[in-house]
């Protein structure tokens, strides 16, 4: 298994340096790399990231346009979108193209830490050959799934968790993709089978 590493791709130098500083303190044994553009990131030679924190608005190739290139270069990397553009269509597109999580730049730092720790934990646990792969849900997706299982609408879930309806919709799309289903009812049924919810 390759050693863990985190790669940040964001063209805003101040934001990027702040994230590097925060992650270097939180994950002092994990190398943190950063790049101002997707083109520059793809030229990095000695980097095999476990997690890629990817901005959408980048010079040249945008984050969404470049996700396929990143997956070709580092197929095992988990891509987390970090963007101020948390519109529902943007979240849906990112999830459809393989993002495992979507973080808003307005989120609190501890939210990012929780998501990254969860992803690193999942990456560190390699299941034996032939076992069922459990879905990789972020803590927030797990919360949303629990409320979906109780029959709550996106609007009601948003009120319960203090999130916008658009943000809840993005989390629902993410957990549907993680569970490999297309409808909420199928997600609830599969989650019950896996013991994720009662």
Average per-residue pLDDT, rounded, comes to 81
Work out the helicity level. 40-55%
Query: Which structural class do the helices and strands define?
Result: alpha/beta
Number of domains: 2
**What is the overall number of helices?**
9
Structural description of this entry:
Residues 5-120 form the Response regulatory domain. There is one protein chain. By secondary structure, the chain is of the alpha/beta class. The protein has two domains: 6-124, Response regulator (Rossmann fold), CATH 3.40.50.2300; 139-194, Arc Repressor Mutant, subunit A (Orthogonal Bundle), CATH 1.10.10.10. Helix content is 51%, strand content 11%. It has helices spanning 13-26, 38-42, 63-73, 88-96, 109-124, 139-149, 154-161, 165-179, 184-194; strands at 6-9, 32-35, 51-54, 78-83, 101-104. Strands 2-1-3-4-5 form a five-stranded parallel sheet, with helices on both faces. The protein is globular and about 45 Å long. Residues 125-134 have low confidence and may be disordered.
What is the structure about, briefly put?
Residues 130-195 form the HTH luxR-type domain. By secondary structure, the chain is of the alpha/beta class.
């Amino acid at each position: 298994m390759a050693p863990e590493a985190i790669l940040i791709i964001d063209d805003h130098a101040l934001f990027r340096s702040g994230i590097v500083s925060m992650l270097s303190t939180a994950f002092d044994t994990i190398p943190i790399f950063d790049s101002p553009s997707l083109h520059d990131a793809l030229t990095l030679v000695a980097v095999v990231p476990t997690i890629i924190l990817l901005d959408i608005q980048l010079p040249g190739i945008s984050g969404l346009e470049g996700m396929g290139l990143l997956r070709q270069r580092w197929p095992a990397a988990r891509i987390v979108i970090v963007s101020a553009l948390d519109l529902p269509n943007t979240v849906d597109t990112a999830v459809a193209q393989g993002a495992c999580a979507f973080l808003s730049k307005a989120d609190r730092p501890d939210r990012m830490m929780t998501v990254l720790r969860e992803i690193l934990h999942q990456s560190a646990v390699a299941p034996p050959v032939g076992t069922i792969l459990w879905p990789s849900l972020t803590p927030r997706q797990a919360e949303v799934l629990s409320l979906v299982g109780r029959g709550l609408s996106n609007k009601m879930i948003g009120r319960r968790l203090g999130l916008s309806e658009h943000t809840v919709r993005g989390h629902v799309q993410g957990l549907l993709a993680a569970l490999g289903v297309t409808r909420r009812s199928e997600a609830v049924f599969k989650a019950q089978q896996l013991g994720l919810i009662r």
